[in-house]
């Protein structure tokens, strides 16, 4: 119930639709009862059971408006109509009235569903947007600990489950009202018979609650397994070449089958419970109706205290209770599943971003002097990957970071862009601690070109102008020329409107990297961060990309994380790292003269020293 209350906040923007739906549901419930009660005068005409009243009943006050007054007035109307128009016209008139009540009942049902559909779809839209907005705002570290496929499942199928189950609960307002109005009509006809119905409802409710007890926990397990299943599919599609190359199809098939078998077993378990609920509620209803037939029949045939027409109308009302009772049963079970799904979605909505901007965070509009790492230590989990790291990066200089894999080079890029916060020490931007700076304004000063050039399934132009609204074609072309990409882009049939495919799959590695460089150039930041931007390229592509990088770095502050040392010989400062610490620093010539770690790295790469 706690989850349901929290979900109610999404109703607020759609109060109008909700109110209209409630009004039409009330009218639907009312006319559901009236439609069955309207059969009573028709029965009286058909079976000639009515008391012939030729004097119109007098209405004195509201205290006289009861079932006897209504019955006397109906008898007077039917008697008058029958004697003046004949029995056929009387029957046609009453049938028309019955038809009208059923028409209104279904009209109000349609209108209530239409407005609830608007409400339903609007809430689904808002919930999806909230979850996506939260996901996009979370820090990078959050995604390192979560399965991508499980997050996708929470954002898609789990939200759909919430929509269906919680909306069924909201729609359930009509069912208790239908039962209430129906019971009122049944009491008006015979309070004795209605006692059996009152006896049936609590028993039915108790049995239904017993059935639904285990649905929530099992539904939660199903949602979790489906998240793992989507992760498995995502990994399979992403690594299909590796799977085939290592002939691992059977291994992955077994893994996938294990997931589907577990989901199948849980679905069958939940399905057995849910499948039992509807037949059970219907059987209990028929059982009570059977008892009513015996007892009610005795009132008609033996006791003579109830007319046949009234008894048939009463039985119609009693049977009408079965439909809303079954709907309530389904809604209870759906609620259990929806509650489990909401707990999984709430995991995202409640996730805390430890890198939130401070209320008084400062805005950076330009880069003036320097970036300084002051005795910085950092660890992702338990072990430190940076230890007592101190470095100053002056404006306009090219600073290169080199070292073996795992020495902490890429961590520097993660910290300077504030994807993570330092564990100890500080990083200052023009003398201001970046933890005191608005993150968006900090990142606007930086452009990143990484080893894995991530492109989106969109046009080349949109990938280059990523994040820039209403960008001109001339500026896109200019950025592409600086990135040494204009030539190959012009060879495509649609040129800049050509689609790059999923992840840039329609382009070569060098082409993807140059478009990524063009994207960084288009942003036009004062600081460029190059994280092993050429390490995954062949020699020819590397040369083209390196030329593009040199064009891009002109008149900018650049932080170059390099694996291939040939790309950083002209850097103003080369910082050599080992096990998260600086072991050497200087320019290319100075480091060679030290005969230390840097020279050893150069030798290992068989670099020709001029």
UniProtKB/TrEMBL annotation:
<feature type="domain" description="ABC transmembrane type-1">
    <location>
        <begin position="19"/>
        <end position="337"/>
    </location>
</feature>
<dbReference type="InterPro" id="IPR011527">
    <property type="entry name" value="ABC1_TM_dom"/>
</dbReference>
<keyword id="KW-0067">ATP-binding</keyword>
<feature type="transmembrane region" description="Helical">
    <location>
        <begin position="20"/>
        <end position="40"/>
    </location>
</feature>
<keyword id="KW-0547">Nucleotide-binding</keyword>
<dbReference type="InterPro" id="IPR027417">
    <property type="entry name" value="P-loop_NTPase"/>
</dbReference>
<protein>
    <submittedName>
        <fullName>ABC transporter ATP-binding protein</fullName>
    </submittedName>
</protein>
<keyword id="KW-0472">Membrane</keyword>
<dbReference type="Pfam" id="PF00005">
    <property type="entry name" value="ABC_tran"/>
</dbReference>
<keyword id="KW-1133">Transmembrane helix</keyword>
<feature type="transmembrane region" description="Helical">
    <location>
        <begin position="88"/>
        <end position="108"/>
    </location>
</feature>
<dbReference type="Pfam" id="PF00664">
    <property type="entry name" value="ABC_membrane"/>
</dbReference>
<dbReference type="InterPro" id="IPR003593">
    <property type="entry name" value="AAA+_ATPase"/>
</dbReference>
<feature type="domain" description="ABC transporter">
    <location>
        <begin position="371"/>
        <end position="604"/>
    </location>
</feature>
<dbReference type="InterPro" id="IPR039421">
    <property type="entry name" value="Type_1_exporter"/>
</dbReference>
<dbReference type="GO" id="GO:0005524">
    <property type="term" value="F:ATP binding"/>
</dbReference>
<dbReference type="InterPro" id="IPR036640">
    <property type="entry name" value="ABC1_TM_sf"/>
</dbReference>
<dbReference type="InterPro" id="IPR003439">
    <property type="entry name" value="ABC_transporter-like_ATP-bd"/>
</dbReference>
<feature type="transmembrane region" description="Helical">
    <location>
        <begin position="283"/>
        <end position="302"/>
    </location>
</feature>
<dbReference type="InterPro" id="IPR017871">
    <property type="entry name" value="ABC_transporter-like_CS"/>
</dbReference>
<keyword id="KW-0812">Transmembrane</keyword>
<feature type="transmembrane region" description="Helical">
    <location>
        <begin position="177"/>
        <end position="201"/>
    </location>
</feature>
């Amino acid at each position: 119930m706690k989850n349901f209350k929290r979900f109610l906040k999404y109703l607020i923007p759609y109060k109008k639709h909700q109110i209209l739906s409630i009004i039409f549901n009330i009218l639907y419930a009312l006319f559901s009862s009236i439609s069955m009660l309207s059969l009573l005068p028709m029965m009286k005409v058909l079976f000639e059971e009515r008391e012939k009243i030729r004097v119109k009943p007098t209405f004195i006050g509201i205290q006289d408006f009861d079932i006897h007054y209504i019955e006397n007035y109906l008898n007077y109307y039917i008697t008058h109509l029958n004697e003046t128009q004949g029995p056929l016209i009387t029957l046609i008139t009453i049938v028309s009235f019955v038809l009208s009540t059923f028409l209104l009942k279904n009209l109000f049902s349609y209108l209530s569903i239409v407005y609830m559909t608007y409400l339903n779809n609007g809430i689904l839209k808002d919930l999806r947007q909230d979850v996506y907005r939260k996901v996009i705002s979370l820090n990078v570290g959050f995604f390192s600990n979560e399965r991508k496929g499980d997050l996708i499942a929470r954002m898609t199928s789990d939200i759909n489950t919430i929509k269906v189950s919680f909306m069924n609960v909201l729609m359930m307002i009509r069912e208790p009202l239908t039962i209430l109005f129906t019971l009122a009509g049944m009491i008006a006809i015979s309070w004795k018979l209605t006692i059996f119905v009152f006896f049936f409802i609590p028993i039915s409710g108790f049995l239904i609650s017993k059935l639904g007890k285990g649905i929530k926990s099992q539904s939660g397990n199903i949602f979790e397994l489906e998240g793992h299943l989507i992760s498995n599919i995502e990994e399979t599609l992403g690594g299909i070449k590796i799977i085939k190359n290592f002939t691992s199809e059977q291994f992955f098939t077994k893994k996938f089958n294990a997931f589907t078998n577990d989901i199948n077993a849980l679905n069958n378990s939940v399905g057995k419970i849910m499948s039992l609920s509807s037949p059970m509620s219907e059987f209990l209803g028929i059982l009570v109706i059977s008892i009513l037939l015996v007892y009610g029949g005795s009132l008609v045939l033996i006791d003579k205290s109830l007319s046949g027409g009234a008894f048939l109308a009463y039985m119609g009302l009693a049977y009408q209770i079965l439909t809303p009772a079954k709907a309530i049963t389904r809604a209870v079970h759906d609620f259990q599943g929806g509650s489990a799904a909401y707990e999984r979605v709430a995991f995202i909505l409640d996730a805390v971003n430890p890198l939130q901007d401070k209320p008084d965070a400062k805005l950076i509009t330009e880069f003036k002097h320097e970036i300084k790492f002051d005795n910085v230590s950092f660890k992702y989990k338990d072990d430190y990957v940076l230890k007592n790291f101190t470095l100053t990066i002056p404006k306009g200089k090219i600073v290169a970071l080199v070292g073996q894999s795992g020495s902490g080079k890429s961590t520097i890029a993660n910290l300077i862009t504030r994807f993570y916060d330092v564990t100890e020490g500080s990083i200052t931007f023009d003398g201001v601690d970046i933890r005191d700076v608005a993150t968006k304004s900090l990142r606007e000063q930086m452009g990143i070109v990484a080893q894995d050039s991530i492109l989106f399934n969109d046009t080349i132009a949109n990938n280059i102008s990523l994040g820039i609204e209403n960008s001109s074609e001339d500026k896109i072309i200019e950025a592409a020329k600086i990135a040494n990409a204009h030539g190959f882009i012009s060879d495509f049939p649609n040129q800049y409107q050509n689609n790059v495919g999923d992840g840039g799959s329609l382009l070569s590695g060098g082409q993807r990297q140059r478009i990524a460089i063009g994207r960084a150039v288009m942003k036009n930041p004062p600081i460029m961060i190059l994280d092993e931007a050429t390490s995954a390229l062949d020699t020819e592509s590397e040369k083209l990309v390196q030329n593009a990088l040199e064009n891009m770095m002109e008149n900018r502050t650049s932080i170059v994380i390099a694996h291939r040392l040939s790309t950083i010989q002209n850097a103003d400062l080369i910082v050599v790292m080992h096990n998260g610490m600086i072991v050497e620093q200087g320019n290319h010539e100075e480091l060679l003269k030290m005969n230390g770690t840097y020279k050893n790295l150069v030798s290992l790469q068989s670099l020709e020293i001029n």
